[in-house]
Amino acid sequence: MIDFGYTLTRDRQLDYDRGDFRFLRIVRAMEPSLDVCIGCGSCTATCSAGHFTGFNIRKLHTLIQRGDNETIKAELKKCMFCGKCQLVCPRGVNLRNLILAMNRAIEQLG
Amino acid sequence: MIKFNLFVLPFSLGLIYIVYSIIMHYYRWIKALPALDKVKLSTGIRTPSKVFASLKEIFLEGLIHRKLWKRNPLLGYMHMSFALGWFLLIVMGNLESRVYHGAHFNAPYYPIFLKFFIHDRLVLFFEIFTVPAFFRFMMDFLLLFVLSGLVLALVKRKQSNWFGMKQTTRHSLFDRVILTCLWLIFPMRLLAESYTAGYFHGGGGFLTQNLGNLLIAVTPGPAELIAYFFWWSYSLVLGLFFIMMPYSRYMHIPSELLLIVFRHCGIQPKKWGSAFSDLEVYSCSRCGVCIDACQLNFAAGINNIQAVYLIRGQRDQYIPENIALTCMLCGRCQEVCPVGIKVDSLRLIKRREIGSGQVSDFSYIASSHPGFADVVYFAGCMSHLTPSITIAMEGLFTAAGVNYLFLDRDGSICCGRPLMLAGKDKQANELMEFNKTLIRQTRARLLVTSCPICYKIFREEYNLPIRIQHHSQYLLDLVRNGKIPLQSQHRKVVYHDPCDLGRGGNIYSAPRELLGKISDLLPSEKECANALCCGGSLGLMNTSVQSKDEVTRNALHSLLEHEPDFLVTACPLCKKTFAKHSGTEVKDIAEMVYDAIP
Ligand code: SF4
Ligand code: SF4
Ligand code: SF4
Ligand code: SF4
Question: What ipTM describes this predicted complex?
């Protein structure tokens, strides 16, 4: 391919009609505090797993809302469940249970 | 001649059924033991000291109910009067029946319904020291003893606070039916014996004779028939009670006996459901003592998840998920349970059943050789949220001139206990392997950690070849050996026992001794084994932050009662949790010691 000095970026458009929101429904029913997250990223900043690798817990619960379940499946395995994220969350999101809920949704939806 | 009447049938059938049922249960539990436990049991029951210890405990806890006495004398008396009273009635009744019955064989119902078959004349005053009169007196006395317990049980329904209990167990319909049967047994016996004694003008003791005379005098109608009616009722409620017993909480009576023997033989709870845990489930009497102990109940108003409900769910083969997951695993209920049931391990078994499916992948952890040292220090994830603790610890290591290595200076690989608390042992083990390798590589002789959560799992699951200490123990050793000079600041402090260090690790005195040297330690209302949980427990899965906050505030209220200058704890998680709500500064014991270096 000719190098023009720039590339096309991947399509970042979200099609909410195509998202798979079954995942979101399961998680939200198990942990309603998902909805009070303000996306501040404190959880990610303190994350034990995130310290070793590019794991981003805040991104995961954003991805739930977008219905991008495949990425969650691949990423969630890295969480050590240590609970630091939950302790620093300024909004009182119950992150460990959120993680349990995501795992449950993965189990249920395969 | 064998004495018989049709009315003895319900009792006799019930008795056959319950004896058969108990034998089958015992057989099932013993058969299901793993081979090693079977060996322990068979050697145990042939070791006189273990047999004696078991019998002693059965007597003290099963009959006298010593632990309940300590809790509240009225509660202890109530349970004792039922257990000991009934037991002695059986023993005494059997002895009495021998007096009247020369043969060796005695139909089992005969002692129970003796007064129906035997009618002595009235005992005259000068005869009260004869053998029959003695038995008559004792049998009436014991009946009265049991009845006094019954009256207390009725009072307790209305005034549970007199018995030291704020809340009692909410019983199911079936439980209430069998409870009614149990409560009817002794009044029926009283009425049957009294009417009979009254009708025959003799045969009763001080209670039944006098009551009988009175009843005959005031109730019109055919006294013999009325008496017969009560004998039938007595036999029926006994029979019904026995038939329902295997399906009810009263199976705790025979179960607890076997549990005590199992324990004295050294049989331990397992990680998964086992004969031992099944026996524990059957041994719960649903006394409800665990309900009052639970902070989720008295501080946060969550009153359906306590040990008694978990165990009842287990017994009914159905535990709603929230009962398994909503619990701090603080161990307070386990501490007060008069049967000594390992409630935490029962709950974890359930969590493993629910939660073990998850997949994990920690292949991203790449660690290099940590280097060598005499002492390896593992701060733990939580201590990274409270850097004042790690700063103090590093300062203290340096001050004491220790050759140490801060293993997780650049971020911790979690110890694995948080995963285990969620029932994910397999995933936890994957993490543990990383830490084990690192710790071994340091060739240190001692592992010191600042986090009681790590301390507990290091001790119980890691199988490390080196000594493990929590920093409160380690610092005390340093101070005792004169490695760190201290000067008391004479500040008033209250010490909070972290759950995993106190009840979980049995470390109560080291932090207190240390604090005694550097501050003025105040007592607090609930401490040591009775200490409260801070509310931040990682055992709690699905409880809202609001409920946790209520637990924290309630605990703070109790801890800060004497208005200390500092609230001191020995756990980064407790510190972080309390700091959110406390008006008083919260410090870790390491910080206190560090500040006390002159
Ligand atoms: S710390 Fe809490 S509020 Fe902030 S992004 Fe994470 S979950 Fe959301
Ligand atoms: S619990 Fe998981 S997501 Fe939260 S800080 Fe620990 S490793 Fe990160
Ligand atoms: S678990 Fe223990 S304290 Fe709770 S009801 Fe059962 S026997 Fe009583
Ligand atoms: S372990 Fe603690 S939180 Fe759980 S039921 Fe027992 S007292 Fe309550």
Answer: 0.90
From the list B459, B273, B451, B437, the residue with the least C-alpha distance to B356 is: B273
- Please name each of the domains of chain B with its CATH number: 47-247 (no CATH), 254-258+275-355 (1.10.1060.10), 375-477 (3.40.50), 484-595 (3.40.50)
Please indicate whether, in this complex, the C-beta atoms of B361 and A77 are within 8 angstroms of each other.
Answer: yes
Nearest Cα neighbor of B107 from B196, B242, B241, B11 is B11
DSSP secondary structure of B274-325 = -HHHHHHHHH-----HHHHH-HHHHTT---S-SHHHHHHHHHTT---HHHHH
**Contact between B345 and B269 (Cβ < 8 Å):** yes
Amino acid symbol at B180: T
Q: How far is CA B280 from CA B44, B245, B528, in A?
A: 19, 17, 26
Could you give the domains of chain A?
Answer: 25-109 (1.10.1060.10)
Considering only alpha carbons, which residue of chain B is nearest residue A101? B542
Which of the 8 DSSP states describes residue A19? -
CB proximity under 8 Å: A 15-74 to B: 30-31, 33, 46, 48-49, 51-53, 55
User: A16 CA to chain B: closest CA distance, Å?
Assistant: 28
> Can you give the pTM of this predicted structure?
0.92
Token pair, residue B197, equals 């004694």
B208-245 pLDDT per residue, tens? 999 999 999 998 889 889 999 999 999 999 999 999 99
Give the Cα separation of B598 and B595 in Å (integer): 8
The minimum CA-CA distance between A80 and chain B, rounded to whole Å, is 6
